[in-house]
Write a structure and sequence with these properties.
- The structure is a homodimer.
- The first copy, chain A, is of the alpha/beta class.
- In chain A, the strands form two sheets. Chain A has a seven-stranded parallel sheet with strand order 6-5-4-7-8-9-10, sandwiched between helices.
- Chain A is elongated, with a radius of gyration of 21 Å.
């Protein structure tokens, strides 16, 4: 086991690279590399490396990562559902006012991206009583959750969704997907007057300026964004001070690195015995 | 079926009164009253009526009420766990900074009050991965949740609890329970430096000034309060502007009244057939 600073001195003999956002070109300098293990869910940065070696790449899919993104999704779905930002503003005005609010069973949440994390998050939201549907590129079947897929299923999925949760990976197909045209297809939550967005996928999926437009025209009642086209978010972005936007610094899936070590070791042991890596990345698909 | 304004003209022939916070003395004016159905979980206001007729009293315990309080508890537990107020303040400063945060599996949540609502809320928190324990006046057994009971079990319950959720009813025994001495017995969340409080029970359980003291001395890292000693909360209360306090206007359990009607009708039909009411209030116990 070597850290990168040690490996940089002697690039021979490194069989496995465990990386998160490695500088492009770095992996090409390891002549004995057998496989790459990506210490997170998103591999878009890795696959964009023009000198990426032709070895198998696995993503970690640890329960800790899954649980944390689910926490984030449940928290921000409930913040929108329970009008927390409205009550925050009332608190600043010392105003005691109760607003009608639908039951969760009357509210349709839609989750885009039904991998390990998306499926887990959708299940957690459904357990709270929401009407949950999921959308994915290819067909998926989930217990208790209505599913849609592909471009043919997208409009019907959006038309029934009042709170949209995006957990998609960044690929050529998903870049710019969360644009004004898509957001206008969402169902408006009757009581709030608009739909709600939670993006904890990738910033390149959303068009930041279109989110602002959708909020300002009332199509969106509020948005929680963990990811942005450019990160860190530029200090002059209008998103920071928009009263309907909640911003977090791409930490939805922040994990305890120590919890990953046993899984990484198990992956390498399996691979050394000739078995395939778990959660293998499909380069053509992009995730 | 009569509304109170109609019944006030003719108080004879009213067998069942479905009430929420009725003026004291009102029920005593109904000579033919057979039973009272309280349209909420708390009966403290009702039992404080010195002229309360000696008829059975039932509380509604509808899935909608239970689900909504659970939403509230999950939302505010996660807001504390995920440091949402810290990220809110960073957003105001346009600051992109990530803070370490424990996994839910490393955090101990304690729920006081294990009736229908408390048990449901505890289960929902446990499903998100938190280490959940419950405390109640009398012994309870819950699947997957450690339980404590009575005054003998209170200190041990507090000593392992970093996020305290209070869903207790107001009784002679619970008044003033959430005071500085009790709050100082909580376990401090290592990363946050203090414990967290969510009170969605009754305002008379807490000593408002002690909450402020516990926050200011750092024993509490934050508090969410839905209930207060005096409601509406006085506009000069220091709680409104305290940076570590989240205030909601006693709406954790606000429900859709229409959903209750079938249950009330079923209760009355059972009672007319000679069966006992569900969720009967024990006047001596106070809930």
């Amino acid at each position: 086991m070597r850290t990168w600073s040690a490996a940089a001195q002697n690039t021979r003999g490194v069989s496995y690279a465990c990386v998160w956002l490695p500088p492009h070109g770095l992996l090409a300098r390891l002549p004995d590399l057998k496989a790459v293990i990506n210490l997170g869910a998103g591999v878009d940065h890795l696959l964009a490396d023009p000198a990426l070696p032709a070895v198998p790449i696995a993503r970690v899919a640890h329960d800790d990562l899954t649980a944390r993104v689910t926490e984030y999704v449940v928290l921000h779905t409930l913040m929108h559902h329970r009008r927390q930002r409205l009550y925050d503003s009332q608190q600043r005005e010392r105003a005691w006012r109760v607003h009608d609010q639908p039951a969760a069973s009357e509210v349709a949440v839609g989750v885009m991206g039904l991998g390990v994390i998306g499926s887990h998050a959708a299940d957690a939201i459904a357990r709270l009583g929401f009407r949950v549907a999921g959308w994915s590129r290819s067909p998926k079947t989930l217990s208790g959750i209505e599913t849609f897929h592909g471009s043919a299923g997208l409009d019907a999925f959006l038309a029934r969704t009042e709170i949209l949760v995006c957990l998609l990976p960044r690929t050529r197909e998903t870049e710019g997907l969360l644009n004004l045209a898509l957001l206008r297809k969402l169902k408006r939550d009757g009581a709030a007057g608009g739909a709600w967005l939670v993006n904890a996928g990738r910033g390149q999926l959303q068009v930041d300026a279109d989110i602002v437009s959708a909020l300002d025209e009332g199509m969106l009642a509020g948005a929680t964004l963990d990811v942005f086209q450019e990160e860190p978010l530029a200090s002059d972005s209008p998103l920071w001070s928009h009263p309907k936007v909640t911003i977090t610094p791409h930490n939805a899936g922040d994990i305890s690195p120590g919890l990953f070590a046993p899984q990484v070791i198990a992956q390498i042991e399996r691979f050394e015995r000739g078995l395939p890596l778990d959660n293998l990345v499909d380069r053509a698909r992009g995730y």
